[in-house]
Amino acid sequence: MRCVVANWKMNLRSGEAQAFCEDLLLRLPEGGSAEVGIAPPFTLLSLVSGLVRPRGLQVFGQNAHAEDKGAFTGEVSMPQLRDVGCSGVLLGHSERRQFFGETDAGLIKKIKAAWQWDLLPLLCIGESLAERDSGATLDVLGRQLSILAETGPGPLWVAYEPVWAIGTGRRAEAPQVQEAHAFIRAELIRHGACTDYEVPILYGGSVTPESFPELLGIPEVAGGLVGGASLDPHKFGELIKQAG
Ligand code: 13P
After folding, report:
1. pLDDT of the chain along its 244 residues, tens only?
2. Residue 24 CA, ligand 1 centroid: distance in Å
3. CATH topology for the 3-243 domain
4. Would you say the CB of residue 226 lies under 6 angstroms from ligand 1?
5. The CA-based dihedral angle spanning residues 128, 129, 133, 135, taken in that order and rounded to the nearest 10 degrees
C-alpha cells in the first residue's frame, strides 16, 4: 500500500483551502490506488473533509489531546476530530516535540486515545542534525519507537522525518533513508506492532515531485508525509500520481 499525506501545518485560510481541494480533485488519477490524506489546521477540518472525503481521501488532525473532554483550554480531543470527519491523526511531529513539549510518555496516552476513537495514528519520528552528526540516529529512532512496547499493537502508520530535512530543501540521501526505514521495520516487528508489512512507513522531509520517485524505489518506503510541496495542488497531485 502506498500513502501520500499532506501536512499543511499552520497554513491556508478557508478560501484558499476550498480552492486547493477543488483543484486537487480534478487532478486525482483515474483508478489510482494510493491512500491519500490531508492534515489541515483544525479550523479547516470540516471544510476539507466535506470536500475530499466523498472522493475517498482521508482527513487527519495534526495533533489531539489524550483526554476526551475537559478543562484544557486551546486543545482539541480525539472525539472532536472524529466529529468533523477525521479518520486519523498525526502524533509526535517534530514541531510538536520541539516547540510544544510533546513527550514520548504523552504519546503513549495519545495513541491509545486515538485507537479508542477509531482514529489511525500517524506517528512521526526522526533525529535532529546534532543527533545524526553524533551517530545517534538509530538510538533516537529506537527510543521514539519504544513507546509501542507500552501501547501494544494496533492500526498504525509511521513517518520517518529527519528534523534536519524538514523545510530545508535538504532531503535525506537514499542510503540514509534505507537504513532508517529498515531499522524502523525491525523495531516495529520487535515490539509486536506489526508481524508482517501492514504498518506503512512514510518518509517526510523536503519531498518534491523531483525527489519522490527515487524515494518510492527505496525498500520499506511506502510513501510520503509532505509539508511545503503539499500546499500546491499541482505538486501534490503529481506526488499522488507518482505513488500510483
Ligand atoms: P517539508 O515537506 O516542508 O519539508 O515538511 C515535512 C513535514 O514536516 C511533514 O510533516
Report:
1. 999 999 999 999 999 999 999 999 999 999 999 999 999 999 999 999 999 999 999 999 999 999 999 999 999 999 999 999 999 999 999 999 999 999 999 999 999 999 999 999 999 999 999 999 999 999 999 999 999 999 989 999 999 999 999 999 899 999 999 999 999 999 999 998 876 558 999 999 999 999 999 999 999 999 999 999 999 999 999 999 999 9
2. 19
3. TIM Barrel (3.20.20)
4. yes
5. 20
**Nine-digit cell string for 92:** 509526535
What are the b/e assignments for 50-68, b being 16+ CB within 10 Å? ebbeeeebbbbbbbbbbee
Are 25 and 59 in contact by the 8 Å Cβ rule? The answer is: no
Return the residue whose CA atom lies nearest to atom 5 of ligand 1.
227
Query: Rounded distance, CA 41 to CA 52, Å?
Result: 15
Of 102, 129, 207, 235, the residue with max ligand 1 atoms within 8 A of its CB, to mutate for a pocket test, comes to 207
DSSP 8-state assignment for residue 54: G
